[in-house]
Amino acid sequence: MASTIEKIKQLREETAAGMMDVKRALEASDGDVEGARRVLRERGQAIAAKKSSRETHEGLIEAYIHFNGRVGVLVEVNCETDFVARTPEFKAFARNIALHVASMNPLTVSPEDIPQDAMDEERGIVEKQAAEEGKPENIVAKIVEGRMKKFVSEKALLTQDFVKEPDKTVGDLLQETIQRLGENIVVRRFVRYEL
């Protein structure tokens, strides 16, 4: 029983899920912490998906200036209510996004926003490189598609690995924050300046 209480406590601290949600997730995974974490994450993504259609008119603009003064970022993060926009957790999320943008220099917020001319230019480079490797044409096509997927995941903010926790993407961090705060949250836009 003590180990179950410890598992519940650990999962609540890690995921910020409610006690009953954690207990049900542990029951669903037969007491396995990793399995429960996976169940909670899936449920969180379902909750976030339900909230994604809600309007986001509140939020804040977070600024980050790197310690050397040579990189600066402004990021707009929106939520549903001003109450959530003032919470320390929302502010910390916005700060983390600004820090990430300063560090990783994404091109756009989401993969759909990457300009077509940038995609075409990269595809041309990748096709040339793949053709020079001397592989059969059907393999070249697969190589090109794989490298294009990697390009998109590296250039779009939401698909980049989060700089503080590389085992999750910025999109995963967004979904977790939506689950914890109970509101739809959108990273609207960002600007990065560098000397």
Key words describing this protein structure:
single chain; 195 residues; alpha+beta; Helicase, Ruva Protein, domain 3; Tetrahydropterin Synthase, Chain A; GTP Cyclohydrolase I, Chain A, domain 1; 3 domains; three-stranded antiparallel β-sheet; 13% strand
Q: Strand portion, in percent?
A: 5-15%
How many β-strands, per DSSP?
A: 3
Oligomer: single chain
- Strands of the widest sheet, in order across it, are 1-2-3
Q: Provide the succession of SSEs.
A: HHHEEHHHHHE
Task: Give the fraction of residues assigned to helices.
Answer: 55-70%
CATH topological fold name of the largest domain: Tetrahydropterin Synthase, Chain A
Largest pleated sheet: 3 strands, antiparallel
At the fourth level of CATH, the homologous superfamily of the largest domain is Elongation factor Ts, dimerisation domain
- CATH class assignment of the largest domain: Alpha Beta
Shape: globular
- Number of helical segments with 4 or more residues: 8
Taking all residues together, what is the mean pLDDT? 85
Explained architecture:
This protein has eight helices and three strands, in the order H-H-H-E-E-H-H-H-H-H-E. It is of the alpha+beta class and 195 residues long. It has three domains: 2-51, Ubiquitin-associated (UBA) domain (Helicase, Ruva Protein, domain 3, Orthogonal Bundle); 58-110 and 156-194, Elongation factor Ts, dimerisation domain (Tetrahydropterin Synthase, Chain A), CATH 3.30.479; 115-154, GTP Cyclohydrolase I, Chain A, domain 1. Strands 1-2-3 form a three-stranded antiparallel β-sheet. Strand 1 and strand 2 form a beta hairpin. Helix 1 (2-15) packs across helix 2, helix 5 (88-104) packs antiparallel against helix 8 (170-181) and helix 6 (116-132) crosses helix 7. The longest helix is centred in the N-terminal third of the chain and has 19 residues, at 33-51. The model has no long low-confidence stretch (mean pLDDT 85).
